Amino acid sequence: MAWNEEENARQRARREERLRKEEEEQKRRKLEIAEKQARKMEAFLKEKEKEVLQLQEEAKNFITPENLEARIEECLDNPRNYNFAIDKDGRIVKRTVLS
């Protein structure tokens, strides 16, 4: 009977040790997942901030009712001809004359 008590105590100690290790492993995994999620969120926020800055920069060139007259004058002063042909390599082959 004493041997059985010793064996039960030994098994209980092993089980408690295994459960403690599993709990530590689970805590470690949760921490890793939280850190990974935080890094992912930080990268996402940086990307969105970069995108916002790019859009703000592009917005400086938008045509608004306030700058419409100036943009029309600018286009009339500097006409561009988009009537041309290109070859397969993207080089301009033939261009028409502006009238």
From TrEMBL:
<feature type="compositionally biased region" description="Basic and acidic residues">
    <location>
        <begin position="7"/>
        <end position="27"/>
    </location>
</feature>
<comment type="similarity">
    <text>Belongs to the mitochondrion-specific ribosomal protein mS26 family.</text>
</comment>
<keyword id="KW-0809">Transit peptide</keyword>
<feature type="region of interest" description="Disordered">
    <location>
        <begin position="1"/>
        <end position="27"/>
    </location>
</feature>
<dbReference type="GO" id="GO:0005763">
    <property type="term" value="C:mitochondrial small ribosomal subunit"/>
</dbReference>
<keyword id="KW-0496">Mitochondrion</keyword>
<dbReference type="InterPro" id="IPR026140">
    <property type="entry name" value="Ribosomal_mS26"/>
</dbReference>
<protein>
    <recommendedName>
        <fullName>Small ribosomal subunit protein mS26</fullName>
    </recommendedName>
</protein>
<keyword id="KW-0687">Ribonucleoprotein</keyword>
<keyword id="KW-0689">Ribosomal protein</keyword>
<dbReference type="Pfam" id="PF14943">
    <property type="entry name" value="MRP-S26"/>
</dbReference>
